[in-house]
Amino acid sequence: MDGWNPIFLAAIATRTVIVFVFLFLAMRVTGKRQFGEMNVHDMLLILVVSNAVQNAMTRQSPHLAPGLVSAGTLLILGWLLGYVTSRFPAGEPALRGEPTVLVENGRVLGRQLREQGVNQDDLMAAVRNRGLAGLEGVRLAVLEANGTISIVPWENKSTG
Amino acid sequence: MELLTVAGQSLAVYLFLVLGLSRLAWAHMARLTPAEYLMVALLGSAVETALYHGSGSLESGLVSALTLLLTNRAVDRAMVRWPRVRRWLVGRPVVLVHDGRIVRSHLRRVWLTEADLRAALRTKGYADLDGVRLAVLETTGDVGVVPKEQEGGGE
Fold this sequence. Notes:
The structure holds two protein chains of two kinds. By secondary structure, chain A is an alpha+beta fold. Chain A has two domains: about 5-95; about 100-160, CRO Repressor. Chain A has seven helices and four strands. Chain A has helices spanning about 5-30, 40-50, 55-60, 65-85, 90-95, 110-115, 120-130; strands spanning about 100-105, 105-110, 140-145, 150-155. Chain A has a four-stranded antiparallel sheet. Chain B has two domains: about 1-90, no CATH class; about 90-145, CRO Repressor (2-Layer Sandwich), CATH 3.30.240. Chain B is of the alpha+beta class. Chain B has a four-stranded antiparallel sheet with strand order 2-1-3-4. Chains A and B meet through helix 1, helix 2, helix 3, helix 4 and strand 3 of A and helix 2, helix 3 and helix 6 of B.
């Protein structure tokens, strides 16, 4: 290996800058607006992209172009997926899952809880997180497609 | 002996990353944006060769990671300094609900479905659009909700 050869290290620094700028701009162009928490698809895409450019950053020259092409292809695929799911919401449940009602008018729907694998502790944690002590105050609890539990309290929201 | 080198390199890489990351302004934030998450993933990729390729590649990984940290810092600085750069990179807030009505063209523009919007409102404690005067998709990805004035008064 080239060890602490300054030319070699400068080359690596240069490649890293190229990769960073490329990805930053490519993500800006292909990425959708951030909305809430990142979902698994977003994270997966980013992890795969960063693996794709690994050799482009830290290895000798033949690896730069393939890494960028691979990362670019992945980002375009991600863009397509986002475009399709936003334009054709009918196909969305298959990819992202659907929201499930867990509590309706203060009544726990036990079957839904079991089917979705949500335990009582998770539900109560979400309830307390809203500032409620128990299910009495809950009008609606929904397991969202992204895995979070939404709690809608009985009281008019503008007070709390 | 070789295994010992690997352990030593891993330790060096880890310490380097922990120190490097703690210098980033957003490193202590609870929620990462995709750009920030990308940075973390890229740092991981950059040092990966340093972890398992034997002694020669430690410096490649560290130089690459350091370059990433410095470039990221430069971008952050540029966004603070030139608001136009920031606006271009992170966009502007987008109104999703105006006067209690969904602004569909804006939803489409940010690639959101009505189901997405409703889920976000539920997360904020609203069962439906009743009671929502204004909902704005902020640049952080959070949805800010302004409730309607209480109707009937007297409360």
